[in-house]
């Protein structure tokens, strides 16, 4: 049996995925978490073979869950099922050790087959997205991404500095670097473009 934990914040989608996968004779759904923090606790308790997760969720995102699994060297493999057809998200997912990346509008039978493939040690990546992922590089480093995300949420440079334990000048430098790398006029435009590309 392939033992699976689901992490999905939309109740209807969570229920549909649970019902769909429960129809498969070789797949057992151990649980379905409504947010990232709950998923992390359940991962440690249930120790599933696979985590099937969305990207954006309250608490921890699917990418952050994958990074934690990688950091803690857990054997659970991660498959992302998302609406985000963005090459930047896929690149970050692959860097976090994700083995599968599927779009929610893919045919239902593709999901079960992808899970079997990942369980056997393979990868299941949307082919069109895989092509795009290698054609456009993410120019931001982790700190620039972090600072830009907070700026996009409306925090001032001083508030970002306090939250990240950096100096005001350092925050301004990171923002300036991000704006320059993205070739835009200000931090709001930089945030919008990076979000659109899937780099945040």
From TrEMBL:
SMART domains: HTH_LUXR, REC. The keyword GTP-binding does not apply. The modification 4-aspartylphosphate is found at residue 54. PANTHER family: TRANSCRIPTIONAL REGULATORY PROTEIN DESR, TWO-COMPONENT RESPONSE REGULATOR. Residues 133-198 form the HTH luxR-type domain. It comes from the Bacteria. Keywords: DNA-binding, Phosphoprotein. It comes from Lysobacter hankyongensis. This is Response regulator transcription factor. The keyword Kinase does not apply. InterPro entries: CheY-like_superfamily, Sig_transdc_resp-reg_C-effctor, Sig_transdc_resp-reg_receiver, Tscrpt_reg_LuxR_C, WalR-like, WH-like_DNA-bd_sf. Residues 3-119 form the Response regulatory domain.
